[in-house]
Each structure stands twice: as C-alpha cells, then as structure tokens.
Request: fold
Amino acid sequence: MKKGLTKLLLAGTAGVGLRVYFYNLEEQNSREYFSPKIRQREENLQSMKKNEYDILVIGGGATGASVALEASLRGLSCALIEEGDFAGQTSSKSTKLLHGGVRYLDKAVHGKAVRENLELVSEALKERTVFMRNAPHLTSWMGLGVPTESFLELGYFYTGLWVYHMLAKLQLYFVGLGHCEIPRPSFTFESTKVIPKLRDFYSGCVIYYDGQMNDSRLCLEILLTASSENYVKGMVPAHVANHVSFVDHIKKQGFIVGAKARDNLTGEEFEIKAKSVINCTGPFADKVRKLALESSVDRMVPGKGSHIVLPASYAPNGKGMLIPETEDGRVVFLIPWEGKTLVGTTDTKGSLSKSNTISDEEKQFLVKELSKYYAKGPLDIQDDILASFSGERPLVKQKAQETSELSRKHVIEVFMNGLISVLGGKWTIARHMGEEAVDTAVSRFGLTPEYKSRSFDCLLIGGHQVNYQELAAKYGVSEELALRLYRHYGSRTEKVLQIGEFREVVRDHPFIISEVIYAVREEYARTPMDVIAGRLNICFIDNQLAKGALIAVSELMGDELNWSKEEKRQKYEEAYKILYQYRK
Reply:
C-alpha cells in the first residue's frame, strides 16, 4: 500500500514536472504592434456624449485603467471617467513596489489564513513579472536588504526569502514565463556594504529582490495604451477623460444603463450610456455603491498609508532596506526612488479623505523606526525630510479589527441592478483584477468581445526598445537626460525630444520644458498639479522644488491651453494650496 502510494506520488510529480518543462518550451504568443495615435481628452468627451458603450468605468486609478485596457484589447467599446487626475489618489501614493508581499507569506508560514495568503502571494508574484515584462522602462528589480542581529535570525530570513523566490519561479513556470530571470536571494556578514549607515549591532544582512515601478506613470501609460487607435490589431480605443465627476447612475426600469457625469473644468453635465458599469473607485467605492443601491452595506474600511522622502544619501548604493517588524507588527520599506529615498508605509485606520497629508504621529513613527536601524538620531532624520505624502487604501471589511491584518485580496461584487464593483486588491495584481472584472461584465451582460484576454503579453506603448544614447547624440542632449527621459517615456522619448525645448523647468534640476508641453499635448494634463504630481513626480520627491517649478509650469500650460493671465494666476493658487499636503 505504502509502495503504491509512493509510486503514485512520484508519477504525479514527474507528470507535473514534464508539463511545466514542455509548457515553457512552447512558443510564446507573439504580438504585432503598429504606430499608435492616442485620442485626447476633448475628443473623448465629445464621443462620450453621443455613444453607447459596452463598459463604462468609474475611476481612473490602477484598477480602472486595467479594466479599460482589457476591454479595449478584447474589442469592446469602453469609456472611463476620473474625478481628479488619473492615479491621483491611492494609485500614486504607493511604496512604488511590484511585490508579492513578504509579510503575507510570513503570515501563511505562521498559520494565519494559510490558503488565502498563499494564493495572494502567488498571484502577485506572477503579475509582478507580467508588469515588468510589459513595461520594462517603468519597472526594474530592486534589491532589498533585511538586517539581522544573529546567525539564527539571518538563517531564518534567508530560508524564508528563498521560499519566496522559489514560489515566484514555480508560478512563472506554470504560466509559461519560466524563461524570465529573477535575481536570487543572497546574504552577507558585511551589512554596511548593502546599507552603509546601518547601526553596528546588525552583523548580517539578507538581500532579496522585488520589482520597483513608477506608479503614477505606469497607470497613465496603461490608459494611454487603452486609448490608442490601431496599436494592436482589433483593439477598440477606450474613451478616457480625467477631471470628470460621476454624479449619479442612470436607471431604466430599475437597471443601471449609464451615468450622469460632470466636466469639472467647464461645469457641463452630460450623460454616458453603457450596457454595463464597473465601479473602480478603490477606497471610495461605497459612495458609488450606495447611489446604485441605497440599502447596500458599506464594504470599505478607511485605511491610510503614509510615506516620508529623504535625501539620496540614505540609500546611496541603489539598494533598499526592509524593516521586517516594527513595534506594532508592520513592515516598513526604505528604497531609492527618483534620486531620493522613500520610507514607508504606515498602515492605520482613519476617516475617508482625499487629502494627501501625513499626520505628525505617522511621521514620528516612521522616523523612530528608521532610527532603530540607521546610525542617525530621530531629530536628524526629521530635519532631512524633503516631502511626505499619504493615500487611502482599498481595504475590504472583514472580521479583523486592525488594518494591517486586513487581506489585500480583491472581490468582484455584482448588484442585481447591474453595478459591478471591484473592491480591495493591490497595485501588483491590477491587470488580473481588470481581466476578472471584464470577464464578469461579459458573462453578466452578454457582451460579445472579438478576442479573449490579450493583456497578459501586451507591451504598453512605451515598452519597445530604443537606444537612448543614439537619441542623446541626435538631439544634442546629455546621455544622463536621455536616460532619465527613457525611464519615464520609454520608446516615446523621441516625441518628447522633438518638441525641442531643453531648458530646465527649475535651474540645476533635470526636468525640461518639453516634458511640460508634451504632458499637455499627449498625456491629458489639464492642471498644474497634473504635471507636478502625475507626470513629473516632483511633489513626491521635494516639496520646495515643486513650489519652485509651479510658476514655470503654470505659465507654460497657460500658453498651451490659451489661459488668460487671470486663469494662470488662479490655476497657480489652486495648485499651491494642494502642494501644502506634500509638505516636509
């Protein structure tokens, strides 16, 4: 009996192994791409007033953008509206990491919601690689050091992070991406080589790798790809618009058939007709749900994640640090980003708010935790802060009381009157959430897509390879500038350089005038904050620098959009008030 069971297990293991092996030898899906024309905001708004869509998406963050791209690639007509700027809330306030979630694996190891946490980590590890393959210019591998005080602790973390690594490799083999490389974990007894200013009593360090991203630009590029004409054969360009508020649902015989919307830049109200409506408003989803069904029970828990920004000297060698457990059981990351160092995130309950302001308590918490590891006192760290930001998290209500214990697993909810809501989730699995949401709309409303899902292996419009050094020589700019532009625009870098305005927006800083003009002409920027935050990321890295850039940006945008002198002043003042939220 035992021998028979052993043989069965061996045969099963061998069968799975062979399937995995040959799956990865199969030819990968090829995709032909064409030079895209991106539809712009005003053109899209006119279309929204006249057409009926297969899908209307409310919310232009990572989830909504992924739904729009998924629909577009399947040949479904789709409209998307966003109250503020794209990725203006949660999706630009992340820790800038594409990761499986080490702490969720740790919870599974300790017997907490084992199946759910393992599924969440496995899914995220797969989607991490998908994003990094589809947007190589906006993503990269980030080495993270985990300081240890003893050999025993070093062995524990090294073993756990190898499990994390092998789980990722196994996932990739099963989905046909086994050829994709993932840097392996390692360890050192010279921890200061990884984190130079680490305190002396940390004798070792385990190094593992996760993905890093430019979150606001990644969300924007997903939307730009979705709204492109003729980029991929058979896709139907989505009609997307920022600064358009959802006002209410349109109902016919009790069923939702569209939405009332308002253009926040002109005040005009209009209706958008659609066969299905998908609510992708993240932590603000309950408002849209209540308007659809007044008796619905709130599902979202107000949660807040905050960060501080420090000088580059805190992570001088291109590697970051994971603080594996703070005094209240969280994890905190320190990572190099955009020439500075990002520290976060907190994980606290709070009241639902669109303000990006970090509380003094959260700031002190991050400073205190970092000072335990860093050879620098809390007051010195406090003085070094360049900027800060905070965002709401899309946490779904469960039995757990603490926000740090709430799962990041997503839920697709469908009301009887037709509203589909995508609740919870995290940035890393946004593509998969979009795929599931469109699957739900197709099955629930009988939509007829031309294609099955094609987002898994679709390069975003900037994802094609270009030689930035050749572009530098062609346009007479430094290779350093060309490289920075490539890391923001990818294969669209030449379009930015073709504008020909290479003067700096702020003296001695790399942002150039061409970027501001390009943001207006090609990237839906309509307010100074759209540029300062969502396109150039300036307010996320240095609050004083953002204030300095604001005058020039307001003038340049005003000239492009034909603002009067009074309008330029008004737009500047509105943006200046918002910048206070990112203060030191």
About this structure: The first strand starts at residue 37 and ends at 38. Residues 386 and 544 are 8 Å apart (CA to CA). The chain is about 40% helix and 20% strand.
